[in-house]
């Protein structure tokens, strides 16, 4: 192993505030060949925390972005290493900037204001054109543009409390298990879509958009039991029937498909069908149903800096392999990040650097299965993860794999057995209100002006005359390219 360089950071005490030191950038090159270069943060007490990876090559500079959440205030070391001990690592323009939690939150809020909201000014006047001082303006969201949803399972079909809980909060979902192959074909040749069909009918009746999860799962342990004993020839025939069956059945019903789940960590189908197995599945799914976004869905890409297999760089490499395969031209590809965070402080600096890198593809990014493992600070950490995702301009949707205890959500539980909010549930409800669902009420000033900052989406705006109490309602669509405008209301 080659250690390229050693830097002693200049951090001071900072009154014991938790810091988010972020390695803003570092350019790397090798003396020969190519290899993975990693950054390691080492505290004075010996704690070692991985901070990111990049493939460095001879003859060109590669950018490594990463960071670490450090719950210590003493000086620490930054080391860069490669696996090949025979090469030299060259580094240039390495920078590090520390942030307090308050500073980090301020940056998030500024990004949300810039990326998710627009300022709207109403001018309320009477018929003769005079300013209507004191007029009340209420903007109620009819449809928000940012998908913020929650996983759903079969308990929704029979549990009315679960139905009420879900419908009062979410318009986007993913069925946690019910569409998977091991659920729809428990016995070979006996397909049963009764449960996912019923769940899809429920979502359609209640105007809920559904992500399809999943067509295939590359983990050998997650195949239907009967699949595991098939010959390669029989497996190929069974897989062909599976993809044609499930995709054709739900054609036009879903907004997305997780086509091949977790194939950075696992390679069951590649082992059986060859290295292009995943790409062929994407091409076939696109052929059968060309409209949904086709996701590469993976874990630990942003949540665990020590998992090199699923690093943002390797994720992009795998995605490029799929997109270069014949038959996928024109496919609406998307980046799916499961975001299952373990207990303990999430590494938001690493999460942000990963999102930054993945966003350079120009493809939409979704957090597809957000959860945070139980701990005394679970609610706090869940809020940090959700805010970080929502504030990032590359993220276009968030689905949590969480919910009420009655539906069996025991990892990130949002409501107890009596449907009373847990602390994590309080966080989610707070963010739902904060991100635009609640009514916005303002009063016109002496010039009839009302200024409101609204999240992207469609609104019903009601204006009430302060003297006659008569009202008028108009529709307003606030989009990302919406400039601040003055909207006359008479």
TrEMBL record:
Residues 138-431 form the GH10 domain. The keyword Signal applies. GO terms for biological process: polysaccharide catabolic process. One of its GO terms (molecular function) is endo-1,4-beta-xylanase activity. Transmembrane segments: none annotated. SMART domains: Glyco_10. InterPro entries: GH (IPR017853), GH10 (IPR044846), GH10_dom (IPR001000). Keywords: Carbohydrate metabolism, Hydrolase, Polysaccharide degradation, Signal. Pfam families: Glyco_hydro_10. Residues 1-16 form the signal peptide. Gene3D superfamilies: Glycosidases. Belongs to the glycosyl hydrolase 10 (cellulase F) family. This is GH10 domain-containing protein. It comes from Flemingia macrophylla.
